[in-house]
Design goal:
Blueprint: E1 5-11, H1 19-34, E2 37-43, H2 44-51, H3 62-72, E3 76-82, H4 90-97, E4 108-115, H5 123-134, E5 138-139, E6 144-147, E7 151-152, E8 155-156, H6 159-178
Parallel strand pairs: 1-2, 1-3, 3-4, 4-5, 4-6
Antiparallel strand pairs: 7-8
Length: 193
């Protein structure tokens, strides 16, 4: 029996419903089709009121600490953020500021973003890749960028985008196969997808 990979999606969207959360959920589904996985979703929209005022990790409430532990102990990450003024949201960055700087070393990370138009598509390469390079994570080869027109009722519908998402996961498959499940630690339950 194969031990499932712990795949954690982080959505930087601060609204509900969120296109970034919808994109992350779609990518989680595609990964689940390829490898056995246990999925967890961390949404900034749910954590925002508890996260915004903290300066030190010791000041965070338990719900945020559980989300941080889920990310740190994941075998694979999917991160999706809306573009805000040419970059990821400040709350998304604030969350990752609390992640231990060695916790993501060699961890595969599938990068995704949503924006109002194609003008911001380079956010993946110019903002997200450098952030996860700092953590020495393995940014997967293809990122997925979606615009408002790719959604209907907060669900992906553009065939080209759906093909890009499938291709991103297919290209990631060799790296996902290298991700070995870490020993199970006492991880508090968060939001199971």
């Amino acid at each position: 029996m194969t031990t499932p990979l712990r795949v954690v999606a982080v959505s930087g969207g601060i609204q509900r419903p969120s296109k970034s959360a919808a994109l992350a959920a779609h990518l989680l589904d595609l990964i689940a089709d390829e490898v056995p996985s246990q999925q967890t979703v961390v949404e900034m929209a749910a954590l925002a009121p508890q996260l915004a005022g903290a300066v030190w990790r010791s000041q965070l409430p338990s719900a945020v600490e559980q989300a941080l532990l889920a990310v740190e102990q994941a075998d694979v990450l999917v991160v999706a953020t809306p573009v805000f003024r040419g970059s990821y949201t400040g709350l998304f960055k604030h969350f990752f500021d609390f992640i231990d700087q060695d916790a993501l070393i060699d961890k595969p990370v599938l990068l995704a973003a949503t924006g109002g138009s194609e003008r911001h598509a380079l956010v993946i390469d110019h903002q997200l890749r450098p952030l996860f390079s700092f953590f020495q994570a393995r940014s997967l080869p293809l990122g997925v960028y979606a615009t408002d027109k790719d959604f209907v009722d907060h669900r992906l519908h553009n065939p080209d985008l759906l093909a890009r998402a499938r291709l991103a996961v297919q290209r990631a498959k060799p790296l996902l196969a290298l991700a070995t499940p870490a020993p199970t630690l006492a991880v508090p339950a968060f939001t199971q997808a």
